[in-house]
């Protein structure tokens, strides 16, 4: 088949099949029961799937019977999913314990997983799962015997032995997959022109043999485009932080600064709870602040008392160490006050005594 360059049946693939029903074994006197669903229909099953992949045999099959024509118009869809490191759940690598040169797909992974399961338990692999032809292939009898004796378990409900296939849950969906969808239509009975064309290819084919055994399949693209579906993150890290910050700012009035302050506050609270040294420091700091506040209040009260008695001028005149210099009214007047004696005078007037270390002097200029 050449690569199709335009849509339509004329540019697709046409296959003529010969079933050779005369070679089919159905038992004697039609006594063979139909063991599988495809045994009810004579003909062929076909699958349309990407190259180097295993189709889903249980669901992707199409059937064509003798003396009929099947038309499969193909359209394709591509699915691009996110890997696990981008919040997705797909993969492009085979799980641990499975190695293959085939490109990763969930179908290939399931087939190789079941092949490994049969190889470990039976020493061979059914042809259905031996997609790489690297292991010994089981005959139908070997497969039946192994399943019946080694792979079946007793069902407590039905009381029968039932085959328990491996789950292979570690075979995740592939990140990039191409899916073909077929729109089928069928026609029954070849025309006389079809018989003439077929006999021109091989004169040994009789019309009776062609009616009983021949069927034709036409597979073609209905259009030369495909639909791509991409899985994207609902919100990136930047968008998530922006949404959180916007909602907190709108409803709580919070910003990065307030969040930092809250974190700093709780860190100090935890530090205070776990560190005895920190608790002692905070306690002494609180005591010092109260002492300083009390001293400031006492000083303010003393100044109020002195101001109410009008003793400030008397204190100044009676304090030793005060020097006045006669000057003109327009000139500067300078006088000196001994603050230690002034403090002692204030304490004696207010009834409060205190001891201070050191002496301080101050110069006051009046303009």
UniProtKB/TrEMBL annotation:
<keyword id="KW-0812">Transmembrane</keyword>
<comment type="similarity">
    <text>Belongs to the amiloride-sensitive sodium channel (TC 1.A.6) family.</text>
</comment>
<keyword id="KW-1133">Transmembrane helix</keyword>
<feature type="region of interest" description="Disordered">
    <location>
        <begin position="346"/>
        <end position="367"/>
    </location>
</feature>
<keyword id="KW-0894">Sodium channel</keyword>
<keyword id="KW-0472">Membrane</keyword>
<keyword id="KW-0915">Sodium</keyword>
<keyword id="KW-0739">Sodium transport</keyword>
<protein>
    <submittedName>
        <fullName>Uncharacterized protein</fullName>
    </submittedName>
</protein>
<keyword id="KW-0406">Ion transport</keyword>
<dbReference type="GO" id="GO:0015280">
    <property type="term" value="F:ligand-gated sodium channel activity"/>
</dbReference>
<dbReference type="GO" id="GO:0005886">
    <property type="term" value="C:plasma membrane"/>
</dbReference>
<keyword id="KW-0813">Transport</keyword>
<dbReference type="Pfam" id="PF00858">
    <property type="entry name" value="ASC"/>
</dbReference>
<keyword id="KW-0325">Glycoprotein</keyword>
<keyword id="KW-0407">Ion channel</keyword>
<feature type="transmembrane region" description="Helical">
    <location>
        <begin position="248"/>
        <end position="274"/>
    </location>
</feature>
<dbReference type="InterPro" id="IPR001873">
    <property type="entry name" value="ENaC"/>
</dbReference>
């Amino acid at each position: 088949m050449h690569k199709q360059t335009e849509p339509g049946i004329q540019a697709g693939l046409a296959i003529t099949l010969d079933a050779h029903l005369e070679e089919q074994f159905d038992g004697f006197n039609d006594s063979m029961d139909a063991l599988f669903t495809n045994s009810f229909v004579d003909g062929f099953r076909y699958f349309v799937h990407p190259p180097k992949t295993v189709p889903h045999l249980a669901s992707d099959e199409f059937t064509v019977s003798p003396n009929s024509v099947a038309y499969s118009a193909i359209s394709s869809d591509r699915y691009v999913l996110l890997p696990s490191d981008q919040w997705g759940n797909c993969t492009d690598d085979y799980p641990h314990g499975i190695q293959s040169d085939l490109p990763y797909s969930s179908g290939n992974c399931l087939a190789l997983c079941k092949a490994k399961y049969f190889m470990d338990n039976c020493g061979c692999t059914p042809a259905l799962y031996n997609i790489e032809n690297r292991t010994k292939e089981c005959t139908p009898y070997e497969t039946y015997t192994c399943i019946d004796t080694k792979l079946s378990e007793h069902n407590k409900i039905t009381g029968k032995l039932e085959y328990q296939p491996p789950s292979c849950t570690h075979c995740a969906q592939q990140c990039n997959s191409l899916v073909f969808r077929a729109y089928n239509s069928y026609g029954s009975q070849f025309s006389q022109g079809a018989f003439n064309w077929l006999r021109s290819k091989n004169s040994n084919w009789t019309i009776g043999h062609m009616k009983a055994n021949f069927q034709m399949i036409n597979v073609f693209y209905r259009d030369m485009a495909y639909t791509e579906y991409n899985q994207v993150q609902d919100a990136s890290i930047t968008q998530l932080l922006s949404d959180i910050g916007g909602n907190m700012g709108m409803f709580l009035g919070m910003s990065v600064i307030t969040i930092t302050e809250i974190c700093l506050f709780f860190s100090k609270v935890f530090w205070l709870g776990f560190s005895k040294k920190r608790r002692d420091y905070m306690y002494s700091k609180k005591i010092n602040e109260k002492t300083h506040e009390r001293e400031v209040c006492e000083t303010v009260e003393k100044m109020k008392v002195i101001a109410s008695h009008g003793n400030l001028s008397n204190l100044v005149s009676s304090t030793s160490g005060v020097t006045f210099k006669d000057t003109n009214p327009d000139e500067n007047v300078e006088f000196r006050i001994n603050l230690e004696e002034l403090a002692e005078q204030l304490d004696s007037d207010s009834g409060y005594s205190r001891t201070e270390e050191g002496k301080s002097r101050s110069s006051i200029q009046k303009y």
